[in-house]
Amino acid sequence: MQFSLVALAALVPYVSAHYFFDVLVIDGQETSPNQYIRSNTRPEKYNPTKWINTRDDMTPDMTDFRCNKGAFESAGQTETATVQAGSTLAMKLGVQATMQHPGPAQVYMSKAPSTAQEYEGDGDWFMIFQEGVCNPDADFTKDAWCTWDKDRIEFTIPSDLPDGEYLIRAEHIGLHGAHVGEAEFYYASCAQVSVTGGGDGVPGPTIQFPGGYKQDDESFNFSLWSGYREYPLPGPGVWTEGDSAFSNPSYDTCRRASRRAHRSVYHRTYHGSYRSSYRRARQRAR
Length: 286
What we know:
single chain; alpha+beta; Coagulation Factor XIII, Chain A, domain 1; eight-stranded mixed beta sheet; four-stranded antiparallel beta sheet; 22% strand; disulfide bond; signal; cellulose degradation; secreted; hydrolase
């Protein structure tokens, strides 16, 4: 989709609050808008997705929640980027927008049975990156969050990820209205990639979209307006690279329980390094 300079100038104030990802950045090099990221068909491309008070009847319980409304219609015209396992990628917002809603960011991947262009995303999704609060001393409704005023979500393709074609799904969740059940703004977009030079890791745990998020999840019914408190990050937890625990049920059960116990950490990355909680950091500093 091409924008004139006049149209771009008109859009910027609106997409600072509502936005969409359309540029894939590969090892610091920006590609063309929607070259590798599927375009949606929403009347206004920056519309959020919510369970209530929807903008265009789009909710997280629909199949289009995987990659945004109508995105599969553009899959055949979207190129598939070849990327190396271990490389650094980013999903960048369109039309000079930045993320100006408080809330976490997640990046998921799902392996295509054949090609990414033909894949609707109806398989299993695993998380490779997540970030929440970076500065609990800052304004919890604004710049306490790692994503605040950034124009992209940056992440690393796990070096142990098996070769093949994948969808990469990036999302940012705005929590400013979660206290009344209306914050669930999901600015999700999917990139098509072919991963090379990978390993034999077993990604997991996995979820599916729709169904992986529930309207009554604590993550989506959370108030920011009474000052800082630990936030329960959404999703299944970030895949720990090289983890083959699925062959050991007892260990897998313990690992899942451990991840549930750490759901309120601030920042999780694909290599499984958890940023310690603010409370423990304060205790160590005493």
